[in-house]
């Protein structure tokens, strides 16, 4: 699953192993534990206990996502062509799984339908719950999902009496009520199927960790985060601050670093220049081509203007219509970050909008790679902020904080490195 700016808008969403790190008890605010210190923030000591138990467990983390490199447990076909390994691609779920492997030794990928919607996700989540319940997949230490299934609280409140309206402030206390409203009606309601699947995982004593979402501040909530035994994960920046783009922060049970950069390594690609190769045989030629074409160029020589037709697009245009409009009109190339995000339909108040501007003044379409302007006035792709070569792709979202739930140690240090200089 390649998540570009338009796809993030539509889906509202929102990756070589390392030794398991045994963590000592620390304060919920993140005391000095493990290798590199524990930078996580927990909503309660109960949540902290659940997370620590999962992290020290020898059982696997099951990552529910789409994959193009790792072989999912529920598919029989290899995804990598052994005759053309350099052509292999890295999917969204591959990055999520690689992040989880930085601090948990055993990770099991589980494929969902790449055609993402409420019905396909409900079917896949129910299948996973059934596979665990029946023993087809060994009971894991946790299930991790970076997928966001969004529902607007305003839509929920239209179905509630005026005196029972739910706000972002009380959603954590009333999440079961909200889920019941969403999951009511027919047995074929996909949200009901999601609720029942999450209930099955809770009965099986399998905690579920999900991305909170990347559209804050707004009224969108990840339906998956409303289930009992489910813990929403928000993103921390390099200074340990809570990322403003995190959706429904009052629902978040765990805050963890969510910034990782794919970098060139001997024989493949690693995370933030780590010694271990996370994706052996992967070359990422498309990303290299974009960097080779634009890095070192002066923005006034290469930057394009967003067509006026896009700037005049009505604000109420649906995400699907806007995506089609953008794809039909916009020429591939580099644009001013603020202009491109506006064309995508992001409001300037959105945390993602603000964060992207912090990362760089220019953005490439359709890859969404963000370029800074260096001291010499030239474009530079430098998400690590150290000016070093070999940086290929930046990943900054709650989708990448969720697999970092055991971020005591090197995985936390790596994520901090990825945010320096931003």
Topology record:
Blueprint: H1 5-11, E1 41-42, H2 45-56, E2 61-65, H3 92-103, E3 107-111, H4 118-133, E4 142-145, E5 150-152, H5 153-157, H6 175-182, H7 190-203, E6 208-211, E7 220-222, E8 230-236, E9 252-257, E10 259-265, E11 268-271, E12 279-280, H8 285-294, H9 299-302, H10 308-311, H11 319-329, E13 333-336, H12 337-344, H13 351-359, E14 362-365, E15 370-373, E16 379-380, E17 391-396, H14 398-401, H15 410-419
Parallel strand pairs: 2-3, 2-4, 4-6, 6-8, 8-9
Antiparallel strand pairs: 1-9, 5-7, 10-11, 10-17, 11-12, 13-14, 14-15, 15-16
Helix pairs in contact: 1-11, 4-7
Give a structural overview.
- This protein is of the alpha/beta class.
- The protein has 15 helices and 17 strands.
- The chain has helices spanning 5-11, 45-56, 92-103, 118-133, 153-157, 175-182, 190-203, 285-294, 299-302, 308-311, 319-329, 337-344, 351-359, 398-401, 410-419; strands at residues 41-42, 61-65, 107-111, 142-145, 150-152, 208-211, 220-222, 230-236, 252-257, 259-265, 268-271, 279-280, 333-336, 362-365, 370-373, 379-380, 391-396.
- The strands form 4 sheets. A 7-stranded mixed β-sheet has the order 1-9-8-6-4-2-3, with helices on both faces. Strands 12-11-10-17 form a 4-stranded antiparallel β-sheet.
- Helix 4 (118-133) runs parallel beside helix 7.
- The longest helix is centred in the first third of the chain and has 16 residues, at 118-133.
- It is globular, with a radius of gyration of 21 Å.
- It starts with a helix and ends with a helix.
- The model is unreliable at 1-36 (pLDDT under 50).
- InterPro entries: Peptidase_S8/S53_dom_sf.
- One of its GO terms (biological process) is proteolysis.
- GO terms for molecular function: serine-type endopeptidase activity.
């Amino acid at each position: 699953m390649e998540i570009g700016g338009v796809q993030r808008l539509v889906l509202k969403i929102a990756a070589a192993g390392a030794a398991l790190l045994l963590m000592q008890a620390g304060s919920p605010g993140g005391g000095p534990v493990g290798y590199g210190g524990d930078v996580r923030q927990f909503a309660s000591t109960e949540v902290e206990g659940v997370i620590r138990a999962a992290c020290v467990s020898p059982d696997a983390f099951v990552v529910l996502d789409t994959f193009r490199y790792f072989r999912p447990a529920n598919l029989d076909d290899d995804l990598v062509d052994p005759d053309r390994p350099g052509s292999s691609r890295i999917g969204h779920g591959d990055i999520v799984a690689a992040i989880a492997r930085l601090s948990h030794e055993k990770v099991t990928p589980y494929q969902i339908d790449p055609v993402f919607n409420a019905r396909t996700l409900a079917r896949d989540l129910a299948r996973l719950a059934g596979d665990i319940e029946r023993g087809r997949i060994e009971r894991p230490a946790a299930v991790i999902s970076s997928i966001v299934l969004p529902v607007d609280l305003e839509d929920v409140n239209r179905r509630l009496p005026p005196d029972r309206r739910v706000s972002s402030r009380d959603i954590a206390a009333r999440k079961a009520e909200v889920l019941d409203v969403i999951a009511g009606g027919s047995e074929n309601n996909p949200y009901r199927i999601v609720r029942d699947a999450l209930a099955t995982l809770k009965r099986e004593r399998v905690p579920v960790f999900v991305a909170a979402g990347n559209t804050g501040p707004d009224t969108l909530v990840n339906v998956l985060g409303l289930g009992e035994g489910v813990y929403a994960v928000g993103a921390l920046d390099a200074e340990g601050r809570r990322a403003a783009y995190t959706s429904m922060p009052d629902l978040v049970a765990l805050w963890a670093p969510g910034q990782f950069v794919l970098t060139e390594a001997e024989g493949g690609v690693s995370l933030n220049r780590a010694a271990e190769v996370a994706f052996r045989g992967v070359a990422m030629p498309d990303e290299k081509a974009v960097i080779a074409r634009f890095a070192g160029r002066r923005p006034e020589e290469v930057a394009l203007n967003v067509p006026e037709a896009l700037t005049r697009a009505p604000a109420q245009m649906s995400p699907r219509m806007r995506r089609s409009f953008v794809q039909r009109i916009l020429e591939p190339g580099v644009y001013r970050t603020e202009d491109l995000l506006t064309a995508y339909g992001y409001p300037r108040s959105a945390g993602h909008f603000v964060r992207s501007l912090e990362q760089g003044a220019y953005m490439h379409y359709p890859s969404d790679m963000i370029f800074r302007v260096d001291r010499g006035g030239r474009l530079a792709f430098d998400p690590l902020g150290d000016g070093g070569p070999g940086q290929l792709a930046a990943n900054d979202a709650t989708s990448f904080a969720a697999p970092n739930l055991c971020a005591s140690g090197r995985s936390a240090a790596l994520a901090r490195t990825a945010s320096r200089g931003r």
